[in-house]
Design goal:
Elements: H1 2-15, H2 26-36, H3 42-58, H4 62-83, H5 90-106, H6 113-133, H7 141-163, H8 169-194
Length: about 200
Amino acid sequence: MAALVGLPPLFLVLVALPAWAHVGGGAAGGLLTGLRHPVSGLDHVLAMIAVGLWGAQLGAPAVWLLPVAFPMMMACGGMLGLMGAPLPGVEVGIAVSAIVLGAMVLVEARPQQVVALFIVAFFAIFHGHAHGTELPEGQSGLVYSVGFVIATGGLHGVGIGIGLIHRWNAGRQALRLAGAMVLVAGFFFLWRAVA
């Protein structure tokens, strides 16, 4: 019974607003910012979904290897960005990634697996560097990085899910059309990056 008497004050302490005042900052803020960052730019979104689409076209094991290689190398690029290491042409690299990945989906390219992995990993460095350099002040770089890697994996998953329509002829044509749209958007991003 004495334990029950102590519960109301404990409850009041837990629900008091000052006790939760810092949820938006620190680790929680870094994670949320990291989760939001990859989906905040259409150039990132299209390229990351295209990785999933291309993986779905290629089938196993590429359907899993490409979406694993991209976040791993993106994390390396993010670390470079967090450290302030310069990487020339980041925005151009991101735009070209949409062009190349869109083209791979459009033509249903089937290079050797190591070549496909190299293409994805190369462009992931540019995407990661862009995320890393945009870490908001006062937030944890590690937690922020975890957030953008998770969000990227989610976007790859969306691409893979859409790419499952590759089994049907109409689905293959729809994926090729999607690749063409990513490619055209990539040229727009490139024009914007160099203008």
